[in-house]
Structure formats: C-alpha cells, structure tokens
Amino acid sequence: MSTDATPPRWVRRPEGSTWGDFGPDDQLGRLNLLTPEKVRQGVAEVREGRSFCLSLPLDLPGGNALNPRRNPPILRPTIRNGRPNMVYRLSDDNPNHSDVVCDDIVVLTLQYSTQWDSFAHVGSMFDANGDGLPEPVFYNGYRGGFHIFGPTDASDAGPGPKTTSGAKALGVENMAAQGLQGRGVLIDLRAHYGDARTAVGYDLLMRAMEADRVEVERGDMVLLHTGFAQRVLEMAGQPDPEVLHGACAVLDGRDPKLLQWITDSGLAILAADNYAVEAHPATSQPADACCATLPLHEHCLFKLGVHLGELWHLTPLAEWLRANGRSRFLLTAPPLRLPGAVGSPATPIATV
Hints:
This protein has 2 domains: about 30-65 and about 110-350, Putative cyclase (Glucose Oxidase, domain 1, 3-Layer(bba) Sandwich), CATH 3.50.30.50; about 75-105, no CATH class.
C-alpha cells in the first residue's frame, strides 16, 4: 500500500496481480526485471553486428479504416518571419546568409502505428478501497480522474491548441527513462500457423515454442511474429480492413492457461506485429458474465505490470532468425520520453 495519498491508494489488489511487489509506488512493473544482467545477456546475443528496424513507417497502416479514432501523422512547417519555414532562404532576410532551413511540426496520434502501451492505456473498474464500490483504477492502484486525467467536454478532445489530458503517473516517460534494453526472444507463430486468422491459446503457443526450441526466461522481452504488419506494409497505405480483420495469429486472451503462462514466465514485456496482440473482439464469453473486452490487456497492463507493444514489423527479423537457427537477440526499444502520454510510437532495434 502507498503512503503518497490519504486514504492509501489501495487496500486490496486484484487476484493474481503484482501490485506492491516492486514497491508501493512502482510505475515500471516487470520492467524492473530488466536488470544489468539481462542487458549483458542481450549483448551476448550479438554475433553478427546486424541490426533490424522493427518499426513500420509511422504513416502506416494508412487512413483510419482500422481504427476511426486514430489518424495518420500530419506534417506542417513552423512559421518564420510570417512565412512557412520550409526550404526557407535566409538570404531573403539577409543577403549575406547562405543557409536554407527546414523546420516542421507533427500532429501525431501516438498509437497509430508501431507503438507501446503504457500502464495508463488500460485500467479497470475495480474496488481498490474495499468499500464495495468499483472505480476507475490502473496498475498499482493509480486512479483514473486523479493520476490519469482528461476533459469532460468533447470540445477539449482531439487536435487543439492546448494540453487537456495526461498521466501524472504511469506515463510512457517512465519506460523511456528506464532504458528498455535487454534480451529479446521471438516466437514465430506465422511459421507454424500461416496467415489465416488463428486464436492462439496456451497449447498452440507451447507447440510452436517446443517445435522451435524457444525458451523464455525471467526478464526476457518476448516478441510474437504473425506476419500481420508485413501484410499492412504490402498494402502500401491502403489497408483492406476486411482482409486484415481475418488475417494472422492472435493470442486468445480468454485462455486462463495462457494468462497464467504470461504470469509464470516472468517475461518483462510482450509485443507483437499485429493490431492488439490479442484477439479483438475477444473470443466468446457467457452473455451474463461481466468481463474485460481486452482480457489480455487487463491481465498485462492492469494486473501484472507488463507493457504491450503492437504493430511491430517483425518479418525480416523472424526470417533471419529462422534461417540461422536462432530466437534470441539484443532488443533496444524505448518509447518517446513524452511526459504524461499514455502511449508512444516506437522504433525498436534488434541486433543479432
């Protein structure tokens, strides 16, 4: 329990959670397992000195057909002396200056393309006070409306002239400051289940790992290759939602054995090249049962403190690793150090 507020931030924690395990005010979750030893283990996997960029171009998927709330980046120039500051000739202001200057602005939906989810991205209605009244709560008991806040009026949402929301706790800047470097382990689901939509639970995951002799140890960063981002890339900014929504492997977030494996494995982060890591919408649940629409997000972000990465471009790395009989590499993957953001673009690098 925390002493940074009155009353304490929580008096009861979700079953199976890690709340408090890394300290009462922890905001890193299982990033605490990225110790100097894990960094050394990652560096030890570098044999060829070859690097793979694991990010899509940040203007993909293209349009907003996959998510109407997320739009591609907009680039515009800054203003200099009342004129657009793009290919700006300083000689126009002073004939003795030869410089030509470009300076720009981006309007960026932070989770449009290759991305990180912070713990402030998904919380849950949970009775952390033990008074029988569920309220919006995030990892380690940080509160919606106080630690993570936003406007009540839609006119203060979307693009605008000022900041109106933010995370005073659990923002992506904590991930960035931690460093996000260590040993990565890739599980190649595409090699075993192809490009058809396949809900992968514990049994199918174990089958793929055993076939490829993949081992995940405490503090490893686990990447799932499904081929989804490769298909997005090949669509060249014109994504076909009907095709993509029925394509490639996704984790079955309703499988309790799979969620327990994520807990028991001790993995530090979980990232995939698909849209949500897990099936969305999730597999069926009894109509009278109250549950999370994104059960794996709830398990990882809310309960365990495991950050999720989405839409990473893993196919070239996966193909190289398979051709060379490997599954491990050095992974460097910090988000933007943007205080208060609940998600961030990423440009992860795998070095083999």
